[in-house]
UniProtKB/TrEMBL annotation:
PANTHER family to which the protein is assigned, alphabetical: DIGUANYLATE CYCLASE DGCM-RELATED, REGULATORY COMPONENTS OF SENSORY TRANSDUCTION SYSTEM
Presence of the UniProt keyword Transmembrane helix in the record: yes
GO cellular component, one term: plasma membrane
Segments traversing the membrane: 44-62, 68-87, 108-127, 133-153, 160-177, 183-201
Pfam families: GGDEF
Species lineage: Bacteria, Pseudomonadati, Pseudomonadota, Gammaproteobacteria, Pseudomonadales
Enzyme class: transferase
Entry-linked Gene3D superfamilies: 3.30.70.270
Molecular functions per Gene Ontology: diguanylate cyclase activity
Protein name: diguanylate cyclase
Amino acid sequence: MAPLSWQAERAAFMNGLGRGQDQDGFIEEQVRADRLHQLFRQSFSAIFGSYLAAVMLCWLCWDRFDHSVMLVWLVVLGLTSLLRVKMFTDWFRCPNSERTPQRWERRYWITLVLSATVWGAGAFALMPTDDRLSQVLVMLFTVGMSVSAVSCYSVYRSMTLVSMSLVLLPCTLWLLVQPSPMQVGVAIAVLVFSSFVVSATRKLSDALEKAFRLTRQMERAHSISTRAAQTDELTGLMNRRAFFEQGQRLYAQCRHQQQPLCALMMDMDHFKAINDTHGHQAGDQVLRQIGGVISTSFRQDDVYGLSLIHTPSPRDTT
């Protein structure tokens, strides 16, 4: 029989339940994957934004900074940016089944830490010791980079904090130990501003995680209710209504794709005698065993179910 992709997805979901996966643990894995997908979707522009900010800073202070330091910084930052572009290219090219946190989170962390370290170290290397205007410009750009980290990495609060720290702290700590009250004041202002950003980051990250979790919980509840409405409680097979609905869908699919289709009907003889002789509990046990045999005999993508025909006499099954 032709496979139905939606059936495979539903079967995989139910297999997760059948293996005894804890409900909360199953949802947590889904939420973790959702966060990773959101991270890649919203942070791609950060690669070009960070490099563009470095170019603008060098352009504004071209006559104030050491040209050799600026060129080395831009080259190294460009290499780290290319490394991140390569990572994003691999992500978009790989199949969705391989976009797992176990495979991609560590790789993303490495490229992020490398890029943020280069940015913070480069800004610190460019920081002049006697030019207040240039110092303010450098701090302005580092603060801007830190704020942009909130929008890019908000689904991972730890990434946001690490990125902000690597970019901001070198220049801020240097200003904090300078003798000029103005320099110390700028450093303190940056630290105070950063504390508010950190607080906002925590709230935003928590809100996003709750939204992902609520979405997955609703999807899970819907899947369970749909499964219950389509399944015979005793045997675990599709009930009559679900069987005919999916059978018609499979028939239409095979007809449209001009694929062969076969149908098999099985009848269980003398079931009435089992109920009359051994009671309905024994009959129910027989139905459970029949359901188990059918479930293990067909492929996961096949359509199979149970139809109970009620007559004035004790029930028969076909």
